[in-house]
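>> received
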Amino acid sequence: MQGTELSWTALEALEKAGIQLNDLERTLVEGYRDQGMTYRELGEFTGLSHETVRTVLNRLGVVPRSPGQPATTTEDRETSGKRVREIRARMGLSIDKFARFLTDLAEGHRLGIEVAYATIGYWERGERVPSGSYAKVLELAEDVAADMGRK
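>> returned
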Protein backbone atom coordinates (compact mmCIF):
# COMPACT_ATOMS: atom_id res chain seq x y z
CA MET A 1 0.00 0.00 0.00
CA GLN A 2 1.33 3.37 -0.93
CA GLY A 3 1.17 6.05 1.73
CA THR A 4 -2.25 7.40 2.58
CA GLU A 5 -3.35 7.69 -1.04
CA LEU A 6 -6.76 6.06 -1.34
CA SER A 7 -8.56 4.49 -4.23
CA TRP A 8 -12.11 5.78 -3.94
CA THR A 9 -13.70 2.90 -5.82
CA ALA A 10 -14.30 0.88 -2.65
CA LEU A 11 -14.89 3.76 -0.32
CA GLU A 12 -17.55 5.62 -2.31
CA ALA A 13 -20.29 3.15 -1.49
CA LEU A 14 -19.50 3.28 2.23
CA GLU A 15 -19.47 7.05 2.26
CA LYS A 16 -22.70 7.22 0.23
CA ALA A 17 -24.24 5.11 2.97
CA GLY A 18 -23.11 7.78 5.47
CA ILE A 19 -20.41 5.67 7.07
CA GLN A 20 -17.52 7.82 8.30
CA LEU A 21 -14.24 5.91 8.29
CA ASN A 22 -11.14 6.53 10.35
CA ASP A 23 -7.66 6.07 8.83
CA LEU A 24 -7.34 2.46 9.97
CA GLU A 25 -10.73 1.53 8.53
CA ARG A 26 -9.86 3.22 5.24
CA THR A 27 -6.59 1.31 5.09
CA LEU A 28 -8.37 -2.00 5.73
CA VAL A 29 -11.09 -1.37 3.14
CA GLU A 30 -8.59 -0.20 0.54
CA GLY A 31 -6.23 -3.10 1.18
CA TYR A 32 -8.94 -5.75 1.17
CA ARG A 33 -11.20 -4.54 -1.58
CA ASP A 34 -8.99 -2.56 -3.93
CA GLN A 35 -5.64 -4.30 -3.52
CA GLY A 36 -6.87 -7.83 -2.85
CA MET A 37 -4.97 -8.34 0.40
CA THR A 38 -6.04 -11.18 2.69
CA TYR A 39 -7.10 -10.75 6.32
CA ARG A 40 -3.72 -12.11 7.41
CA GLU A 41 -1.77 -9.75 5.13
CA LEU A 42 -3.78 -6.79 6.41
CA GLY A 43 -3.24 -7.95 9.97
CA GLU A 44 0.53 -8.10 9.47
CA PHE A 45 0.49 -4.70 7.76
CA THR A 46 -1.55 -3.00 10.51
CA GLY A 47 -0.42 -4.99 13.54
CA LEU A 48 -3.92 -6.41 14.12
CA SER A 49 -4.97 -10.03 14.28
CA HIS A 50 -6.71 -11.38 11.18
CA GLU A 51 -9.82 -11.95 13.31
CA THR A 52 -9.91 -8.26 14.23
CA VAL A 53 -9.46 -7.29 10.56
CA ARG A 54 -12.36 -9.56 9.58
CA THR A 55 -14.57 -8.14 12.35
CA VAL A 56 -13.88 -4.52 11.36
CA LEU A 57 -14.54 -5.21 7.67
CA ASN A 58 -17.75 -7.10 8.45
CA ARG A 59 -18.93 -4.23 10.65
CA LEU A 60 -18.35 -1.86 7.74
CA GLY A 61 -20.47 -4.04 5.46
CA VAL A 62 -17.61 -5.39 3.35
CA VAL A 63 -18.66 -8.89 2.33
CA PRO A 64 -16.02 -11.63 2.17
CA ARG A 65 -14.93 -12.43 -1.35
CA SER A 66 -14.02 -15.66 -3.04
CA PRO A 67 -10.32 -15.93 -3.86
CA GLY A 68 -9.51 -13.79 -6.88
CA GLN A 69 -12.78 -11.83 -6.70
CA PRO A 70 -13.38 -8.33 -5.33
CA ALA A 71 -15.35 -7.95 -2.12
CA THR A 72 -18.90 -6.63 -2.27
CA THR A 73 -20.16 -3.66 -0.31
CA THR A 74 -23.51 -2.83 1.27
CA GLU A 75 -24.53 -1.06 -1.95
CA ASP A 76 -23.82 -4.23 -3.96
CA ARG A 77 -25.98 -6.23 -1.55
CA GLU A 78 -28.86 -3.76 -1.78
CA THR A 79 -28.70 -3.74 -5.59
CA SER A 80 -28.59 -7.53 -5.65
CA GLY A 81 -31.53 -7.80 -3.24
CA LYS A 82 -33.61 -5.45 -5.38
CA ARG A 83 -32.78 -7.51 -8.48
CA VAL A 84 -33.88 -10.77 -6.81
CA ARG A 85 -37.15 -9.16 -5.63
CA GLU A 86 -37.82 -7.83 -9.13
CA ILE A 87 -37.23 -11.22 -10.79
CA ARG A 88 -39.55 -12.95 -8.33
CA ALA A 89 -42.21 -10.24 -8.70
CA ARG A 90 -42.12 -10.45 -12.52
CA MET A 91 -42.71 -14.18 -12.23
CA GLY A 92 -45.49 -13.70 -9.68
CA LEU A 93 -44.11 -16.39 -7.34
CA SER A 94 -44.05 -16.66 -3.56
CA ILE A 95 -40.62 -17.07 -1.96
CA ASP A 96 -41.27 -20.79 -1.46
CA LYS A 97 -42.31 -21.37 -5.08
CA PHE A 98 -39.45 -19.22 -6.36
CA ALA A 99 -36.96 -21.31 -4.36
CA ARG A 100 -38.43 -24.51 -5.83
CA PHE A 101 -38.37 -22.99 -9.31
CA LEU A 102 -34.69 -22.01 -8.96
CA THR A 103 -33.79 -25.47 -7.67
CA ASP A 104 -35.56 -27.10 -10.62
CA LEU A 105 -33.94 -24.67 -13.04
CA ALA A 106 -30.51 -25.39 -11.56
CA GLU A 107 -31.14 -29.13 -11.80
CA GLY A 108 -32.17 -28.78 -15.45
CA HIS A 109 -28.91 -26.97 -16.19
CA ARG A 110 -26.87 -29.41 -14.07
CA LEU A 111 -25.61 -26.74 -11.72
CA GLY A 112 -25.71 -29.09 -8.74
CA ILE A 113 -27.33 -26.69 -6.26
CA GLU A 114 -30.49 -26.49 -4.24
CA VAL A 115 -31.91 -23.07 -3.39
CA ALA A 116 -33.50 -22.94 0.06
CA TYR A 117 -36.45 -20.75 1.02
CA ALA A 118 -34.27 -18.96 3.59
CA THR A 119 -31.61 -18.22 0.96
CA ILE A 120 -34.10 -16.21 -1.10
CA GLY A 121 -34.92 -14.17 2.00
CA TYR A 122 -31.24 -13.49 2.70
CA TRP A 123 -30.75 -12.34 -0.90
CA GLU A 124 -33.83 -10.13 -0.94
CA ARG A 125 -32.88 -8.46 2.35
CA GLY A 126 -29.33 -7.91 1.09
CA GLU A 127 -27.82 -10.05 3.82
CA ARG A 128 -26.09 -12.25 1.24
CA VAL A 129 -25.13 -11.87 -2.40
CA PRO A 130 -25.62 -14.77 -4.81
CA SER A 131 -22.39 -15.94 -6.40
CA GLY A 132 -21.13 -18.84 -8.47
CA SER A 133 -23.84 -21.30 -9.47
CA TYR A 134 -26.43 -19.31 -7.53
CA ALA A 135 -25.68 -16.19 -9.58
CA LYS A 136 -25.90 -18.30 -12.74
CA VAL A 137 -29.32 -19.72 -11.84
CA LEU A 138 -30.57 -16.19 -11.12
CA GLU A 139 -29.39 -15.09 -14.57
CA LEU A 140 -31.32 -18.02 -16.06
CA ALA A 141 -34.41 -17.06 -14.01
CA GLU A 142 -34.07 -13.47 -15.19
CA ASP A 143 -34.12 -14.72 -18.80
CA VAL A 144 -37.24 -16.79 -18.08
CA ALA A 145 -38.93 -13.77 -16.44
CA ALA A 146 -38.06 -11.61 -19.45
CA ASP A 147 -39.50 -14.25 -21.79
CA MET A 148 -42.69 -14.36 -19.70
CA GLY A 149 -43.05 -10.59 -20.10
CA ARG A 150 -42.79 -10.82 -23.88
CA LYS A 151 -45.69 -13.26 -24.23
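>> The domain at 74-150 is CATH 1.10.260 (434 Repressor (Amino-terminal Domain)).
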